[in-house]
Amino acid sequence: MIARSAAAARLKTALEENPVCALLGPRQCGKSTLARGFSDGREVRWFDLEDSGDRAALRQPELALSPLRGLVVIDEVQREPGLFAALRPLADRRGAPARFLVLGSASPTIVRGVSESLAGRVGFVDLGGLNLAEVGPKARDALWLRGGFPRSFLATTDPASARWRSDFLRSFLEQDLPQLGVRTAAETLRRFWTMIAHFHGQVWNGAEFARALSASEPTARHYLDLLCGTYMVRRLQPWHTNLGKRELKAPKIYVRDSGLLHRLLGITDRDSLLSHPKLGASWEGFALEQILAACGAEDTYYWATHNGAELDLVLFRRGKAWGVEFKVGDGPTMTKSLQIALGDLKLERAWIVHAGTKTYPVNERVDALPLHKLRELIDTIMG
User: Fold this and answer.
1) Region 16-38: what's the mean pLDDT?
2) 38 or 100, higher pLDDT
3) Could you give the residue ranges of the DSSP H alpha helices within 136-205?
4) Do 19 and 99 touch, CB atoms closer than 8 A?
5) DSSP state of 247
6) Edge to edge, what strands does the sheet with 202-203 contain?
7) Which of 119, 123, 133, 343 would be a feasible disulfide site paired with 18, CB 3.0-4.6 Å?
8) Measured between alpha carbons, how far is 180 from 198 in angstroms, rounded to an integer?
9) Is the pLDDT assigned to residue 111 strictly greater than 70?
């Protein structure tokens, strides 16, 4: 059992400040485990909407939920989005006799339901897979190879981890998505997902995906929306300045979990990872997710111009702009792109996050920083 103290603290705060808390993240990332640990010692009523008995019990949600006190947990709430309307009057009761914790793995359904029914009454906590702060720096390579899904990371061997991820991909495409009303063939979505893996860390080109799928661009965007909305793929939006430069305006795309990325690419062990042409892109996505796990994904972008200047990550925090480059090599140096970004974006400071062990300055405002010392970057940005 790996302690997830930071996530537990965010969950505690959200429940103290709101009558409803939505704990959101991909399937099998540990939401239920976190909720069960948090509920120890409390008066708790748990509903799992994958259980037919619990779904039947909530067919009349007002009658079932109004007598309850303490903490009420509703797992896989995206399966019954109509519950949000029922939670509204319960959340407004004087004295808040019950707090509601809803767990979900499909953001579009949940956000739409919340915006329509629970605005101003709900706190959000996002949970991804295990991250480096939780597993410790010695486990970095295992976390990078296997990804952050607990059962994949904690598997007894690399082959066992790979088998779990293969089974996850199959069950997600063949069972989980159809339960959300997705009617697209599983094989089509797997092909699309594999294409995303090969474009990992690159700018989205809807026309190219559409041609490869023999489909329209709106169809390709719909598939992308599905994988982003279920926390499988990340869209990193571009930052636009007012410099008059020709800047890229399409998002970059990443498979959010490095273990799933490697399974889709056929990477099975550390040796095959280190020799793979997507090594640098894999490192970029892995390190990016570690930063966003600590800083949050709001107000985060990439920046690039048609002239070739680019910056992997731009974060706006405390009214300042901060920049991050990702390099898998262990001795990165200052680049022309980073120098341009410092001036054009007016960065307060920037870092080159690398896979080595040493911290050293490469510029007055730029440090090379190993991933295991990421806490220094986080503390500076977040204040």
Assistant:
1) 92
2) 100
3) 140-146, 150-153, 158-171, 177-179, 186-198
4) yes
5) B
6) 202-203, 252-255, 233-236
7) 123
8) 26
9) no
For the chain, the structural domain boundaries read 5-126, 132-382
Is 0.90 topped by the overall pTM? yes
Q: Provide the 3-class DSSP secondary structure of residue 137.
A: helix
Burial class (CB within 10 angstroms; exposed 0-12, middle 13-18, buried 19+) of 162: buried
Residue 369 bridge partners (DSSP): 353
**How close are the terminal C-alpha atoms of the chain, in Å?**
30
- Distance of alpha carbon 278 from alpha carbon 147, whole angstroms: 16
Contacts by residues 202-208 (CB-CB < 8 Å, ≥ 24 positions apart): 202/252, 202/253, 202/281, 203/248, 203/250, 203/251, 203/252, 203/253, 203/304, 204/235, 204/250, 204/251, 204/252, 204/253, 205/250, 206/250
**Within 13 Å and on the Cβ side, how many CA atoms surround 345?**
33
Please give the DSSP secondary-structure letter assigned to residue 48: E
316 in Cβ contact with 299 (< 8 Å): yes
Listed residue (164, 233, 168, 171) closest to 197, CA to CA: 233
Residues 6+ apart with CB under 8 A from 71: 15, 39, 42, 43, 44, 45, 98, 99, 101
Q: List pLDDT tens digits, range 171-217.
A: 999 999 988 888 899 999 999 999 999 999 999 999 999 999 999 99
Q: Nearest to residue 208, comparing CAs of 200, 216, 187?
A: 216
C-alpha dihedral (156, 34, 226, 57), degrees to nearest 10: 120
pLDDT, tens digit, 9 for 90 and up, residues 212-255:
999 999 999 999 999 999 999 999 999 987 655 666 789 999 99
**DSSP strands (E only) in 282-347:** 300-304, 310-317, 320-327
| Residue among 161, 156, 169 nearest 26 (CA) | 169
User: What is the structure's pLDDT at 41?
Assistant: 66
Using CA atoms, how far apart are residues 192 and 209, in angstroms rounded to an integer? 8
